[in-house]
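Whether sequence alone determines local backbone shape is best considered at the level of individual chains. Part of our work consisted of pairing the sequence of a single chain with a tokenised description of its backbone. This step matters because it turns folding into a mapping between discrete strings. For completeness, the protein is quoted in full, as a sequence line and a line of structure tokens:

_____
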Amino acid sequence: MGTQPDLLYTEEEDALRAAVRDLLRDHCDPAGVIVRTESDAPHDLELWKALSHGMGLAGLLVPEARGGQGATHREAAVVLEELGRAVAPVPYLTSVVVATEAVLACEADDLLAELASGRTIGALAVALHVAPGGAYKVVRHENGTLHGELTAIADAAVADVLLVPADDGGLYAVDASTATVTPQVSLDLTRPLAKVVLDGAPGRRLGDAGPAVRRALRAGAGLLASGQLGLAEWALTETVRYLKERKQFNRPVGGFQALKHRLAQLWLELVNLRAAARNAADALATRSDDTDVAVAVAQAYAAPVAVHAAEEALQLHGGIGMTWEHPVHLYLKRAKADALAYGTAGGHRAALADLIDLPAP
């Protein structure tokens, strides 16, 4: 029997949370995010610089010997909780987790150090909906150049380097300026998708695409649950606050028993989601033999809870919740988009059944 993981937050993790939350309070207010989503540049690169340069949070997953901070997925998960709580439009999950994990699987320390510093933003050129171990599109490799079209690439619009899987089994680093990146319509306005067209773009082979992509998508799926947790926590906290202030029949709406029951149910779901998300982050951090199971459990549970929390927030905010000015629509769109990212809940349940050898009914 292995030792049971300690899923409680450490003092260091609590301090990290407080620092990130303070930064987001000052630089990522809901009204500002809404304004940004209406512009041609939804990403907040000033906030990205504050997180990556100012706080040094871009290299959490990179060992110190390879140019990073030498922390773990647990610390990255805490940052993602706060970014989810603020629906922050920064490429943290896509660059700091997914792209960095892909490069960690290869021997490319120069690029790794660039990603860890935050000076370079990376994007794995695999569609956002692809689950760990799932099939993905590759481009054609020909005499050191790459040719092909890839769609639904998250945060490609701000990437400096694209990590592109090719038909020869290699993963290639491509300077984003040599590709044609076109925005696609995406439901989540804070994590935009793009089409990437490569027409003879030069690429540098980093290593084998198969294990690198699998490792990257597994970490992405596992830590996405922490972002979904932060989102759901915001939804519950804001809804409780609103229902304490809003009055009907001369009494706070939150005093009505039917609404208390709905909020209590949501709180229970959140407690379970925190346990599942923390377990996935800890399994990734410790390289546990049960990491695949932990990630599948977290993703099977996280998406329905995050969507439910955002839907309840919208409904219980009444008329104001239906307006563009109130940020709850950003949270609902993010929750719905997250439900498809790195595999659906149903897909993860099927993967979990296979992992634990549970036959289908």
